[in-house]
Amino acid sequence: VELVIAGSGHTVDGQDIAGVRPFHIGRFTTVTINDLTVTGGNLRGFGDNDGGGILSRGNLTLNQTTVTGNYSSGVGGGITHRPSANQGTLAINNSTISSNRSGQGGGGIANLGRPATIRNSTISDNAGVPGGGILNRVDLTLDSVTLTENLGQDGAGIYHVAGTLDIQNTIVAGNNPNGAPDCETDGIGFQPINDG
């Protein structure tokens, strides 16, 4: 199944109603979302509580899309990408992931199953432990991305668990005023120096 959603600047709002997740992308599904705002997801204490704004088990591309103001008591306050084995990619382009919260990590994004690429986007003011901005467990490419003002005790910007983390032309700075590192992997904090 393939679907293109032309948002045309509109908003999909879960209205902070308990148990509401604006989008669930199923397995073996390819979805492209263009020019849309996704907000108001609220998964507090529910069994399937990952991905407050979007849970993707298939192929998902976001273009010029804002994911903001969502909450999950699991991982991925804004987005959880958790596809089935050997299928499913995540691509985020020219988008904003902001002001999302998670109870278990990846305040903005939890990338758990397959490679992801984020380009020309901003990830800011999200909160989660670990990974205030991003919790990553597989290959991840960041190209021309700004990660700032995210909050988390471990890896306030990015908490990287496994796979390859490729950072290009990207700013990862100004996260967590309490002094946690902007990036962390296996308990070792680091700050990207050569990100060009």
Brief characterization of the structure:
The chain has 196 residues and is mostly beta strands. It has strands at 2-6, 11-13, 23-25, 30-34, 37-39, 42-43, 54-56, 59-63, 66-68, 71-72, 79-81, 90-93, 96-98, 101-102, 109-111, 116-124, 134-136, 140-148, 158-160, 165-168, 171-172, 183-185, 188-190.
Largest sheet descriptor: 12 strands, parallel
Low-confidence stretches: none
What's the gyration radius in Å? 15 Å
What is the helix tally? 0
CA(first)-CA(last) distance = 38 Å
**So what's the overall shape?**
globular
Protein structure class: mainly beta
Task: Estimate what percentage of residues fall within beta strands.
Answer: 35-45%
Order of helices and strands: EEEEEEEEEEEEEEEEEEEEEEE
Q: Kindly state the percentage of residues in helix.
A: under 10%
Please give the number of β-strands.
Answer: 23
Mean pLDDT: 91
